[in-house]
Amino acid sequence: MLPEMLFIVPLYVLYQSLHLYDTLWGMVIIYQIYGVPFSTWILKSFIQDIPKEIEESGLVDGLSSFGVLRRITLPLAATGLAATAALAFISVWIDLLFALSFTFTDAKMVSVAIASFKGYAAPQWPLMAAGSILAILPQAVFFIFVQKYIVRGLTFGALKA
């Protein structure tokens, strides 16, 4: 729950010593460090809203704990999974702080590539606009496929009796 800016210098030193600076694996690790706790925190409320009786009935019917998770809990939490996936995808896709701090040439992220069009004397507005539109396309396609789950997931539990 601390600001990301506090971790830039220690992570930079660690990444230099582990040779993870400017690598795709280094970026994957960074985004996992910040994405998994965020996603877990959001999914916790969706999982807790599933009645325990439904899960217990699966155990009574002979399912293992993993079977209950796979056949009962995850399908009932599908809306929460879609909403969480959308929020995690957005936070990683638009991130500029970590991408600018831990990449240089080899693992350049989309946001850094768009920011590099600023030019020396004047910004290259047409290139920045074209890059921004191309960067939005994967998000738009993703949201088209998960839109119904996101709306259901974000309003889940809004009207409790």
Question: Describe it for me?
Answer:
The chain is 71% helix and 0% strand. The protein has one domain (4-155): MetI-like (MetI-like fold, Orthogonal Bundle). The model has no long low-confidence stretch (mean pLDDT 85). Helix 2 (24-48) runs antiparallel to helix 5 and helix 5 runs antiparallel to helix 8 (125-155). The protein has helices at residues 8-17, 24-48, 52-60, 65-76, 78-93, 97-102, 110-115, 125-155. The chain is built from eight helices and no strands. It is an all-alpha fold and 161 residues long.
Uncertain ranges: none
Structural class: mainly alpha
The chain-level mean pLDDT equals: 85
Helix content estimate? over 70%
What is the CATH H-level superfamily?
MetI-like
Spatial gap, N to C terminus = 32 Å
The CATH topology assignment is MetI-like fold
CATH class: Mainly Alpha
If classified by CATH, what would the architecture be?
A: Orthogonal Bundle
- The total strand number stands at 0
What portion of residues belong to β-strands?
under 5%
Total domain count: 1
What overall form do the CA principal axes indicate? elongated
**Biggest sheet, open or closed, and with what strands and sense?**
none
Round the Cα radius of gyration to an integer and report it.
20 Å
Helix and strand run: HHHHHHHH
Total DSSP helices: 8
